[in-house]
Amino acid sequence: MKAVAIDLDSTALTNDGKFSDHLKRTIETLHENGTLVFIATGRSMKSLKTKIPEDLPVDGFVAASGVVVMADGKTLRNSTFKKETVEEVISIARDQHVYYEINTTNDGPFTFKEDKEYSLEDLLHPPEEDVLAYETIGANRSIKDSNQWVDTVDLEDVIKLYFFSNSKDKINKFYKTLDNNSEKNTKYALYQTAAHNSEIMVPGVDKATGLKVLSKYFNIELSDIHVFGDSMNDIPMFKVAGKSIAMKNAINELKLLSDDITEHTNDDDGLARYIEAHYL
Questions:
Q1: Which GO terms describe its cellular component (predicted)?
Q2: For residue 138, which of 159, 115, 109, 117 has the smallest C-alpha distance?
Q3: Which CATH architecture fits 3-79+205-279?
Q4: For residue 225, what are the β-bridge partners?
Q5: Average pLDDT, the chain
Q6: Which of 41, 87, 159, 232 could make an S-S bridge to 8, C-beta 3.0–4.6 Å?
Q7: Contacts from 58-62 at CB under 8 Å and sequence distance 24+?
């Protein structure tokens, strides 16, 4: 093993979105021992930087599920949606009154002011039992953040759209609509990383293609990379990595693809404890 690629939400992060000091120390030791550290997440670069320690040693980033790939402060790849695809999906969200967030290459999230009224109705609705803590935190942030609600966005620079509802029935109906409209994921790549959200990424890129870019840049093989994850958007990198480790709290589909499963969940420092037991 020459590198590890680590997902963030529900893998490195607790359910309330925290990155533990224990995990930070563990990754620092792993890096000091000569292992490259990659972050592979569905979050944009702007968003992920708010979730990891500022001085965490990270050699490469696969952001927005492979849409943006960075190393040594350089952008190695950046892909964006077709403008008409973004417009079409936002129109579907409006029709079904589903809250959405637009992320551009270097900024976001944004939501159009004209959709604020129906969005707030959902965000302020009492959450169902299985809404994750970080989703509630994000909803509360959006309610208070005046900079998120805008009149215009450059729709030719969009890398990701995120959708959320406190109602599982609403988000599931919306997900099915997007799935039927995706033209077998050729129009956009569709993911669901928790029961109450959905997100679309640029088609043709994912965490696996992102790791391929990093492996070429660092002159290593994909078989040299061990990956950690928990959800649907981790499936591509689990299929190409040298070893794949699913979190105890991962979806069953990912566990079936994995080479190993952590003994503990993300809320119990499962990642740090696995790295210590198997790599240090």
A1: cytosol
A2: 109
A3: 3-Layer(aba) Sandwich (3.40)
A4: 3
A5: 95
A6: 41
A7: 59/3, 59/31, 59/218, 60/36, 60/214, 60/217, 60/218, 62/5, 62/38, 62/207, 62/210, 62/211, 62/213, 62/214
- In this structure, are strands 111-112 and 197-201 parallel, antiparallel, or unpaired? unpaired
Q: Where in the chain do CATH 3.40.50.1000 domains reside? A: 3-79+205-279
What tokens appear for 145 in the block? 């953040």
Residues paired with 110 in a beta bridge: 102
Question: Are 237 and 208 contacting, i.e. CB atoms less than 8 angstroms apart?
Answer: yes
What local confidence, expressed as pLDDT, does residue 238 receive?
98
Contact 123, 166 (CB under 8 A): yes
Q: What is the CA radius of gyration of the chain?
A: 18
Q: Please name every residue paired with 164 in a beta bridge, in sequence order, or none if there are none.
A: 99, 197
CATH number (3.40.50.300, 3.30.1240.10, 3.30.365.10, 2.20.25.10) of 83-201 reads: 3.30.1240.10
**pLDDT class for 159, splitting at 50, 70, 90?**
very high
Whether the per-residue pLDDT at 133 is higher than 90: the answer is no
**Rounded CA separation 59/71 (Å):** 6
pTM of the model: 0.84
pLDDT in tens, 198-255: 999 999 999 999 999 999 999 999 999 999 999 999 999 999 999 999 999 999 999 9
Pairs from 57-62 (Cβ < 8 Å, separation ≥ 24): 57/27, 57/28, 57/31, 59/3, 59/31, 59/218, 60/36, 60/214, 60/217, 60/218, 62/5, 62/38, 62/207, 62/210, 62/211, 62/213, 62/214
In the DSSP assignment, the letter for residue 102 is E
